[in-house]
Amino acid sequence: MKKSASYLILMACIQTFTSESQAQTLKYPESRRENVVDNYHGTPVADPYRWLENDTSAETGRWVKAQNEVTFNYLNQIPYRTKIKDRITELFNYPRYSAPFRAGEYYLFSKNDGLQNQSVYYRQKGLNGNPEVFLDPNSMSDNGTVSIGIAGLSNDKKYLVYNVSKAGSDWSELRIKEIASGKDLPEVIRFVKFSGAAFKGNGFYYSRYPEPSKGTELSAQNQFHQVWYHTLGTEQKDDKLVYIDKQNALRYHSAEVTEDERFLILSVSEGTDGNELRAMNLAKGETEFRPLVSGFDYSSGVVDNEGDRLLVLTNYKAPNYRLVSIDPLNADPSKWQDIIPEKGDLLKSVVVAGNTLIASYLKDVTTRVYQHERNGKLIREIELPAVGSAGGFGGERKETEVFYSFTSFNYPPTIFKYTIATGKSEPFRTSELKFDPSQFEVKQVFVPSKDGTTKIPMFIVHRKGLKLDGQRPTLLYAYGGFNISLEPSFSPSRIAFLENDAVYVQANLRGGGEYGENWHKAGMFGKKQNVFDDFIACAEWLQSNGYTSKEKLAIQGGSNGGLLVGACMTQRPDLFKVAIPQVGVMDMLRFQKFTVGWGWVDEYGTSDKPEDFQWLIKYSPLHNIREVAYPATMVTTADHDDRVVPAHSFKFIAELQHKHRGNNPVLIRIETQAGHGAGTSLSKAIEGTADIYSFIFYATQSPVKY
């Protein structure tokens, strides 16, 4: 039945009264404050919630339980919360595939039937064979919290190494499966983090840490990342140590082997960006690594080799990257040969496809792809089906066809088969949706930042024909860091937000990798404030251009994006109605002391240095909470997050609840049996997204159609 205007106004008034009055009566759990003060280069800084860093203490456990009770009691009284969850569940219920990859006579791919907690890997003979279940992580736990990933294939395609992670932790185990029989070998390799499996002969190289002390697995600083070699059919205790740096405990080390097994490549990094490369010519019997690209100021990776020369993708003296050929016996940069020179657009990746090279670029945050001969000569541009994001294309030198995926905000992921000789693309697998994504439109705008000259790309997605009256509930999402690019992508759950006459916005801030290393450096170290200024400028633009208002605008970001949200809501609490900081880095003075937080020092700086401390203390979300009114806030974290430990979020919400002077709710949602995000079960992901959308609609007093 059609509702009258007076009825809708009445219901809006009832909803307004309900949400505001309940926010006023919220009683937050007690967060004990203790007298802990650190001295940073002559500046005393209080840390009253230091005790919350102990994630295994009984007191922290009681605090977590009490916080969740308040949060879920609040969420439970949102009238449409269950309906939003049901709708997201319905939207996710369609088959989703990965691109296949060839393993000898077999093709392997992953598929989710719709509502499986984890995608299942299948094996089939040839492209037209019968798919058979090959690896099913859903059978490894009762609640879908075990996830798997492919770590590597043996060169004879007889064996596959896969990693197993539990409850979202970065810790994983490596296991080996015989492809033809589907049987696992008996050995299990433990204490692995951030590693693939690089095969050479009858074994593979992998990276691991020493066994952690019991009870500290999810919080203690990880030190001495090492490279080992495992021989198939033997126990881990018999593995051979290949590389350890006993003078530098806080570095990452990873190994790769070229397709022809000629070279072993060692990558060494002190953080998440910037690395040096070393090479060992195994074919010539070398036993020591030679420097290939030295220092940590640039990022480089080996793509392939041409005999005794290596093809390397690097941003050394090329902020937008170039592909060069390097002789390891004479690796001075003056002797490098350009294969694909640097251009105006970012060269995002180069992969081998048959006997050619596929180069992918970002042009204003959307993909362009070109096929080259191995000497760099251009063969053709690969025509993509629309403006969006493409990935894949890789294969071995003997391949005649490869696969890639394409997606955009209103273009569901589609797998294409690409014939290398002819350049022909044809759909291989399309998404069979139960809704019509073409009902939504996408536009890209370029927003002037605070400096008046820098233009920030921003994608805006909403239902076609939506009345833009300045009152649309709007979700602004961004990341802005670590050289990571936020490209267009499709999300089934996002449809549940958009079909309620809402607007989704994705901003590409400085600090990311969208325009190469110069764009990244403009948001690092002492220039991090640029990132927050960019985000604030995007929020102001959306309000001044008729999309939304400060009473309807929500902001969201995860990890470094959680830091972004935390910094912006503390700098400009007047600008937003809702803030969703997820698994954020909130304590910028102590992040380096936990798990792999030391790896972010080359992005943020460190409070251990006087100069760095001066800029970190100015924006650290935890240390800039004032006694003012803040937006409706729901912090999210998880008990097994050993990337950004939950203490960041715990301390932030405790201080926010202590100083918040407004009526908006300020809550924390702490997921159990989950981590930083990767490997989260689908059921938990749906529940979490439904709670976020419900919280946003409720706080912005926006009508929901369900």
Features of the shown structure:
8-stranded mixed β-sheet, 706 residues, 11 helices, 19% helix, Rossmann fold, disordered N terminus, 5-stranded antiparallel β-sheet, alpha+beta
Radius of gyration: 26 Å
Largest sheet: 8 strands, mixed
Strand proportion = 25-35%
Mean pLDDT: 94
How many β strands by DSSP?
39
Measured distance between first and last alpha carbons: 14 Å
Structural class: alpha+beta
The spatial strand order of the largest sheet comes to 32-33-35-34-36-37-38-39
Description:
It is built from 11 helices and 39 strands. With 706 residues, the chain is an alpha+beta fold. The protein has a domain at 36-90 and 464-699: Rossmann fold (3-Layer(aba) Sandwich). It has an 8-stranded mixed beta sheet with strand order 32-33-35-34-36-37-38-39, sandwiched between helices. The chain is globular and about 70 Å long.
Topology summary:
Layout: H1 5-24, E1 37-40, E2 43-46, H2 58-76, H3 81-92, E3 96-97, E4 101-103, E5 106-112, E6 120-125, E7 132-135, E8 146-153, E9 159-166, E10 172-178, E11 184-192, E12 198-200, E13 203-208, E14 226-231, E15 240-243, E16 252-257, E17 263-269, E18 275-281, E19 290-293, E20 300-306, E21 309-314, E22 322-326, E23 337-340, E24 346-353, E25 356-363, E26 366-373, E27 378-382, E28 389-392, E29 401-408, E30 411-419, E31 424-429, E32 440-448, E33 455-463, E34 474-477, H4 492-498, E35 503-507, H5 517-521, H6 529-544, E36 553-558, H7 560-571, E37 578-582, H8 601-604, H9 610-619, E38 632-638, H10 647-659, E39 666-671, H11 682-699
Parallel strand pairs: 34-35, 34-36, 36-37, 37-38, 38-39
Antiparallel strand pairs: 1-2, 3-5, 4-5, 5-6, 6-7, 8-9, 9-10, 10-11, 12-13, 13-14, 14-15, 16-17, 17-18, 18-19, 20-21, 21-22, 22-23, 24-25, 25-26, 26-27, 28-29, 29-30, 30-31, 32-33, 33-35
Helix pairs in contact: 3-4, 3-11, 6-7
